Amino acid sequence: MSEYNVKKLRRTHKGRIIAGVCAGIGEYVGIDANLVRIALAIATLFGGVGVGVYAIGWLLMPDEEHDTSIVQDLINKQQANRAATDWSGEQKPQQ
């Protein structure tokens, strides 16, 4: 079997200004990150959608150094806490 070179949408450190969302999208799509920033700025001026899109990207896009996003980390932590607590609400002893 041959290896496929799969692009992954990630927040990057290269070209990062705030959280790396625009730089990651620009790298993924193959355009300059400044064009993405301008598009988000225009979307922010016309209804404020750009801020929401950026926040969602920040929460859902994993950092280039991690495999999971912020939301995935929070969900995993919540599931681990739920698994460590039995139905009576008492903590199970850690092994």
UniProtKB/TrEMBL annotation:
<feature type="domain" description="Phage shock protein PspC N-terminal">
    <location>
        <begin position="7"/>
        <end position="64"/>
    </location>
</feature>
<dbReference type="InterPro" id="IPR007168">
    <property type="entry name" value="Phageshock_PspC_N"/>
</dbReference>
<feature type="transmembrane region" description="Helical">
    <location>
        <begin position="38"/>
        <end position="60"/>
    </location>
</feature>
<dbReference type="InterPro" id="IPR052027">
    <property type="entry name" value="PspC"/>
</dbReference>
<keyword id="KW-0812">Transmembrane</keyword>
<keyword id="KW-0472">Membrane</keyword>
<keyword id="KW-1133">Transmembrane helix</keyword>
<protein>
    <recommendedName>
        <fullName>Phage shock protein PspC N-terminal domain-containing protein</fullName>
    </recommendedName>
</protein>
<dbReference type="Pfam" id="PF04024">
    <property type="entry name" value="PspC"/>
</dbReference>
<keyword id="KW-1003">Cell membrane</keyword>
